[in-house]
Write a structure and sequence with these properties.
With 335 residues, the protein is an alpha/beta fold. 32% of the residues lie in helices and 24% in strands. The chain is built from ten helices and twelve strands. The strands form two sheets. Strands 5-4-6-7-1-8-12-11-9-10 form a ten-stranded mixed sheet, sandwiched between helices. The chain has a two-stranded antiparallel ribbon with strand order 2-3.
Length: 335
Amino acid sequence: MKVAIVGLGLVTPLARTATEHAFFLRAGVIGPPRAPFLLADDEQLPVRVTPWLGARAPMAERLAALARPAISEALAPLAASGAGPLAGFHLCTTERRAGAGGALEDALTPVARMPRAARVTGEAGAFQALEAESRALERDPQRLSVVLAVDSFVSIEALCERLDRAPSPWAAEARPPAEGAAALLVTSPARARELRLDVMATIDHVTVFRDAATDDNDEPAEAKLMTQALRRAPATRPWRFAFGPVSSGGLRSTEWHLATARTATRFGRECEMRSIEAEVGALGAATGAADIALGAAMLRHDAMVMDASHPATFVAWAMSGDGTRGLAALEVIGK
């Protein structure tokens, strides 16, 4: 079933809203300075920190401070709609920081009356949540739900873990650690019309699958399942835009390029491929939802390098460390 996105929220070290991200990136705004983390030899460690949070806030506090404005922005369209309480809340975090989830839920209570969270983890976790929401909307088209993905590498523990598992010196350059949150308010297109909510984008298709190659093994990136997913995704015309970790490490980049080479006819002769992580740094579990939010915002405001005729279509994808992949085909309505 089609899923209507009627609210977007996006917070990273670059900006506080999805709209700001679209226009800041179109204008080439320089991102925030790197944080004052030093290695043993006094060399600076490149870390992107949200300027208004600083570098000292503990993890649970950081996640809540990132999530609150993202949720507030996504829920803003409901203020005058007369809609009832939310029926669903999907919370996506990194498994290693999932312990902060309870504190995060408590911190969001003053922002909105959130139902009990269904937990997912990893970069592709948001796609799992959207797939579940698509099935739920088939049963109950009246429901309104939020998908929130939030993560941060800005702590001594998280940075030490990342350094202990440094990539090979022959691998592609790793993105600097960063932090962020993305929120998507979703419902059915019919419910959006009833509430007179502006449909920012529709998710026409979402699929989640798991392949053998992961961050923790040496299986080759064969991209068979990603190729199948691209072939099966509906599209009224070739995609001219794509959002996902196309340049975030060897595994993800190799898999995407193999899959798109095999499905070249599904893409336009010219295709603009963007990645939130290439712009602001590594976002961990927030990556998948952030790329969806960024793609919808940039196409909605025609802030891409290539012109976007509306309705514009794009494909978004992500891959978790355990090998779970997510892929979605979306259509965006112009502002």
